Amino acid sequence: MFLARLTKRVGIAATTLFGVGVIVFVLLRVAPGDPIAMMIAPGATPADIAALRAHYGLDESIPVQFALWLKGILAGDFGTSISIRRDVLDLLAERLPATLELATAALLVAILIGGGVAIVGTMLRRTRGESVVDAANGLLLAIPDFVWALALVLVLGVFYPVLPLSGRVNPQSADDFATRFYLVESIVTLRFDKFLEVASHLVMPTLALALPLAAVITRVLKQALAETMVQDYVLLARLKGMSELRLILQEALRNAVGPTLALTGVQFTFLIGGTVIVERIFSYPGVGNMAIDAVINRDLPLIQGLVLAFGLMFIVINILVDLAVVALNPRLRHG
């Protein structure tokens, strides 16, 4: 049953990814603008322009271009960036770790904040404190991540400059890392000075992304806990003298976390895509920041590679979340 479900999901994922590739490829070709026009030097001859178009395969028909691109993808060749003049796969491998670390850090912070507030709100249910929690959570829901980013820049970067405003590390420290996963590497190698440096650059973009997601987690988990707290087994445990906090943590939380986990997984995929604006504000060198430059420069190979990378991450995360929900729910696991 598990293998059949996994095989079906992988098949659907491959079909979805192919469809995304087709749509993006065609839309980029029919959209106004010529990427070659942004590359040619003043005084270039028509022969120079034609040679450059031929070099990037833009002189063929759209079906032929797509066939050549798909053939390259299957061989592990995502093409060469028009604006940066580097292999697209190398650029993705260079920038993707930064975005993954940022999104993962934001997810963990959102889970801690959202889960904590949901538990507090559940303990304060039917009191004035619950109204305060709900009002504060509604405020968090109403403010998008880029507004939080700008507010954090003003408060912690301008008025009280206690945190760095841009980058992942100080420029002179970039060569001190053997991998692109700076945060993970600093922890594994026990270089806590580097960890503090990387973490200080992560604080503001992480909070900007985490606060709206924390509000979503709070709302869903608090609602799930409210429904679970009136179940018979919880009432029986209360009659046995369990404290309210112990009831929530030991009895209610494990049964309420399923819907929250499913929603958090979906929101995490949106979180990765949402890093685009936040990375731009903080000049954070991730794939989101690179995506904006690729669109501005009409860098077709890079845009196509970025879309495929985002699509693949979304699909993999959703599959993992579905499997985790099934693993936590015995009725789904044996159904």
From TrEMBL:
Database matches in InterPro entries: BPD_transp_1_N, MetI-like, MetI-like_sf
Compartments it resides in: Cell membrane
Keywords: Cell membrane, Membrane, Transmembrane, Transmembrane helix, Transport
Main subcellular location of this protein, as a coarse class: membrane
GO cellular component, one term: plasma membrane
Transmembrane intervals: 12-31, 102-124, 136-160, 202-221, 256-282, 302-328
Species per Swiss-Prot/TrEMBL record: Pseudaminobacter soli
Lineage top rank: taxon: Bacteria
Presence of keyword NADP: no
Name of a matching Pfam family: BPD_transp_1_N
Presence of keyword Transmembrane: yes
Signal sequence coordinates: none
Entry's family note: Belongs to the binding-protein-dependent transport system permease family.
Membrane topology of this protein: Multi-pass membrane protein
ABC transmembrane type-1 domain: residues covered: 96-325
PROSITE patterns: ABC_TM1 (PS50928)
GO biological process, one term: transmembrane transport
Identification of the protein by name: ABC transporter permease
